Amino acid sequence: QVQLLESGGGLVQAVGSLKLSCAASGALFSMLNMGWFRQAPGKERQFVAAISWRGVMTYYSDSVKGRFTISRDNAKNTVYLQMNSLKPEDTAVYYCTSRLTDSNWSPESAGDYKYWGQGTQVTVSS
Q1: Which of 65, 73, 90, 107 could form a disulfide with 60, with the two C-beta atoms 3.0–4.6 Å apart?
Q2: DSSP track, the chain
Q3: What is the largest CA-CA distance in the chain?
Q4: What is the spatial distance between Cα 47 and Cα 31, in angstroms, rounded to a whole number?
Q5: pLDDT value of position 86
Q6: Which of 88, 65, 69, 80 is closest to 12 using CA atoms?
């Protein structure tokens, strides 16, 4: 069992920045592939970014590439999402998610993850 706790959400003006954190417990963090998804009201959950268990591989959706950066600190059991140049369309609840590393991982597929956090709200005003 893995517990994930997101933090760092809030209200920010367009072109501003926020940094989300996700603290994991209950499993060997360094063996977890980690991801961030988001869900806006009335929309499906959407892939944002993912990082492999050693942090070697990172993946981004086209909508955030060049603006968001995912990183991890295995010593702190934490994954981060640095969000720059925020836009109103980035407004959503952001979820941290994880799965044990294996060769069948599809980073952009929500169904590929087993554990999810409760989410943190990010609101970008224009």
Answers
A1: 65
A2: --EEEEE--EEEETT--EEEEEEEESS-GGGEEEEEEEE-TTS--EEEEEE-TTS--EEE-TTTTTTEEEEEETTTTEEEEEE-S--GGG-EEEEEEEEE--TT--TT-GGG--EE---EEEEEE-
A3: 41
A4: 21
A5: 98
A6: 88
- The pLDDT value recorded for residue 95 is 98
* Residue carrying the six token digits 């993850």: 113
Query: Is the distance from CB of 47 to CB of 37 less than 8 angstroms?
Result: yes
Structure token pair of residue 106: 């599809």
| Tens-digit pLDDT profile for residues 72-123 | 999 999 999 999 999 999 999 999 999 988 778 999 999 999 999 999 999 9
d(CA 43, CA 16): 24
Q: Which two tokens stand for residue 88?
A: 């109103």
Residues in the chain: 126
